[in-house]
Amino acid sequence: QIFQPLHTLRSAEKELLPGFHQFEWQPALKNVSSSWDVGIIDGLSGWTSSIDDVPAETIGRRFRYDVALVSALKDLEEDIMDGLRERGLDDSACTSGFTVVVKESCDGMGDVSEKHGSGPAVPEKAVRFSFTIMSINIRFDEEEDAVTIFQEQKPNSELSCRPLCLMFVDESDHETLTGILGPVVAERKAMLESRLILTIGGMQRSFRFFFRGTGYDEKMVRELEGLEASGSTYVCTLCDSTRAEASENMVLHSITRSHSENLERYEIWRTNPFSESADELRDRVKGVSAKPFMETQPTLD
Questions:
Q1: Helix H segments across the chain?
Q2: Crossing angle of helices 278-285/259-271, nearest 10°?
Q3: Are residues 20 and 135 in the same domain?
Q4: What is the tens place of the pLDDT at every residue in 223-281?
Q5: 267 with 189, same domain?
Q6: 25 with 196: CB under 8 angstroms?
Q7: What's the rounded Cα separation, in Å, for the pair 52 and 49?
Q8: In whole angstroms, what is the distance from residue 167 CA to residue 102 CA?
Q9: 121 and 204 assigned to the same domain
Q10: Beta bridge partners of 234
Q11: Which residues span the domain enclosing 236?
């Protein structure tokens, strides 16, 4: 070891650090840095070498999404191996076919301003984006049903919920939220089209990820989907009901909103191709007022 060049010693040293995990994506993630020893990222401007050199004007800190997921899976390594054993599966045969369901949550944290003391002046509001690994399944081939080898017992607990991004921003500031969470969404989209190769239980195994945005409250869903706020005439985040229609008909609702449709409506709102008045235009786009930036599946938590 002693006479090796410095960079090999450095990388050998890194592998001994807690929280360091080597992993690979196949195919490689699009639009995401290929370096896997990433720590914490400055929310807006990309990479910083360590958390201590925070410029005072930093308004967000986050982990890279795939690095955080790898860390979460490594934390569950024993549970995964126990799950395989309990199902009577030979762990050496289970190297691929793993699927991981991830619940995403995002909410405002209210007023966090410093009331006294000499810290940096910060905006009063903060928002936290986090995720929970809900379940891990394995399927051997297409015909068979998936076997669940891990299920989170307390999915709404603080202990299973992992922070990904903390930002000083009001949750109704659509532009700043888009600026900070836009890259998170890009990373998530890239992960959907690839699979993670990670060593679990001494063997390389491959994982696919599915994301469910069921941890958002109504205010945040409206924000992420570019809808008018909760005082809007268009009361529903899943369809085009007005308050009057919804009060007459509490039963027969169909889910009609989709992310792509909201994007089209935003373009109509922005360009006003039919030269309509403000009221006519608003009636046409049914309460879409900003460009949606995060897809939220219409599911109940």
A1: 6-14, 65-75, 77-86, 174-192, 218-224, 243-248, 259-271, 278-285
A2: 170
A3: yes
A4: 988 999 888 898 888 888 888 888 887 777 777 788 888 999 999 999 999 999 999 99
A5: no
A6: yes
A7: 9
A8: 21
A9: yes
A10: 242
A11: 225-285
